[in-house]
Design a protein that fits this description.
heterodimer; A: 260 residues; Alpha-Beta Plaits; two-stranded antiparallel sheet; 11 strands; B: 290 residues; mainly alpha; Formate dehydrogenase/DMSO reductase fold; 12 helices; binds iron/sulfur cluster
Chain lengths: 260, 290
Amino acid sequence: MTSLPEKTTRKLGLVIDLDTCVGCHACVVSCKGWNTENYGAPLSDQSPYGGDPSGTFLNRVHSYEVQPLATSALPHPSTQLIHFPKSCLHCEDAPCVTVCPTGASFKRIEDGIVLVNESDCIGCGLCAWACPYGAREMDAAEGVMKKCTLCVDRIYNQNLPEVDRVPACVRTCPAGARHFGDFSDPESHVSKLTAERGGMDLMPEQGTKPVNKYLPPRPKDRLDQPAPTGEIDILAPLLAPVIAEPTGFLLWLDRALEKI
Amino acid sequence: MHPAPSVITFTTLSGLGFGLLFWLGLGLPAITGWVAFTFLAVAYALAVGGLMASTFHLGHPERAWKAFRQWRSSWLSREGVCAVAALLVMAAYGAGLVFLDTRLVTLGTLGTVLSLATVFTTSMIYAQLRSVPRWNTALTPALLIAISLAGGALLAGQISAALILLPVAGVLQILWWVRGDTALQGSGTTLASATGIGGIGAVRAFEPPHTGPNYLLREMVFQVGRNHARRLRIIAFGLGYALPVLLVLLPFSHALAALAVLSHIAGILASRWLFFAEAEHVVGLYYGKR
Ligand code: SF4
Ligand code: SF4
């Protein structure tokens, strides 16, 4: 079980759009909710309302700041704030699977989802060490390893309406920054998005061959840049000051107010 | 990596125990009867005690037997298999020494090979991890094997072997530290490659996902002060390798030999603490650490 399959029939995974993510953490909350109430051990919290709260999460959103370099076209580029959701990438060469001594960790041949069989897991924690992305967390209450299941209990669930048969995070995202699909099909929504937007791997040098892809952020606003030449600012005439210097009554009022 | 006391004790003591079994299997020293029993008892106490300590950090110790199943792919599983095999074979060999006053050479040699294999498989659990660049080197098994055999030689009273192996281990230790100090840089993994957004410009961690700590931070992100680490390295080198060599070079006495062993163990515990505490897991990069 612990050996990786040569090839999986399908390659299910996520595309995460770093350009669109607004960092609202809705996916974090929906993931925690679904995975606490459904498959496997609940995601516990320790002292959630106490002084030192901590808990198990399968999806966490980091925020990074990037300072683009100045160029002649963009002499004062604005700093970009990029929200960065991170969960299991369902790697093709998943090091977390091969290190597992019990066979509890495995990668499914049919769809490539990486799962933990919780009744076999001894909670040694080695798989969490092996994952370079920090995608696995040991649940402090249950003593077993928890990780993203790609909502395996939603995506094939005939009891749910069709529209809900996607991972909870994808269904919830209000910005449409998360997409779910089959990467083995070049015509799928996720394959096309990846091709069009230059979807990338995280830590490619780690050799894990992640299935999930991240779409790079586009350059952000240009408010403090010189007006681009050749374009016409249609609002400019409307925003020009109507009276440069006050006259008459306004001039009197202006002076009277200054004296106060 | 978090320097968990149970793991530090386990790797240090069981390494020493299997190192001693390595020499006993070779018939060095050539002992039988009660003397053999005492040596074997010490070796088993160290090796088994270490293995027990390692189960303390399991979430489900009662399922530990399941860990023998994946020896085809998992170094942790292979370690379990080798350890149990070595202990069983050496028990049979030991019974021959203690009760029959006979040295069953084949069984002893097999025990020696299995003991060595146990130390090697333990070291590979760490050396295999690309996510911890400081461990991810062939120097890791070399160092851990050298330490185990040197410590075993000290305990088994194999002075001439110890006088070669202790300096070898000391040199490997220094090489391991020197390489380790640039290992993370050398791995090519940075916050830029971790986030994929380094092409835009310099990336800085702005806000972590939660204000509180989590399993990842507790388990894999540990920072030691530079000066603190340097001082500990000096202690580890002095007590673990240099002092034991000096002590066994002095005219032999049991007190000095015992002191050499204790000094060695203390030094190796310090070295093992650093082995974990200084090892950077690349997940720390996501949190802006290192
Ligand atoms: S992201 Fe981590 S846990 Fe998920 S498959 Fe890859 S290595 Fe394993
Ligand atoms: S924690 Fe569980 S799933 Fe992970 S390696 Fe250990 S036994 Fe396998």
